[in-house]
Amino acid sequence: MHFYRSLHDMLDQTVLEDARKLMTAGADAELILLFLRAKGFDQIDSIIAIQVLTGKSNPEAKELVVASRAWSDRFHSVRDLHDKAREALLELAASKDKGLPKIELGDFDETES
Hints:
mainly alpha
């Protein structure tokens, strides 16, 4: 909770309060995300803001932000970055290099994008 709290505190509280007012007035998530982006929030800021504003979990907020029209111009570059990171982790896990920490990918699904 401490880590989440420190991330929350790094966000512009005035923008968060204005976004909260928009929500209270009936704005949907897409409008809120457009507002946050226009105010200079990046995707990570927007994910944290959605968590703060809606109580959604991190994975739920991330899915909402990444799949939004407000951030649609970044969708493919984010997916490509995730794919490259996944490939690098798989290569490191397969290397069995004793100098590396143990890498466990859990229930990782290679077909997931």
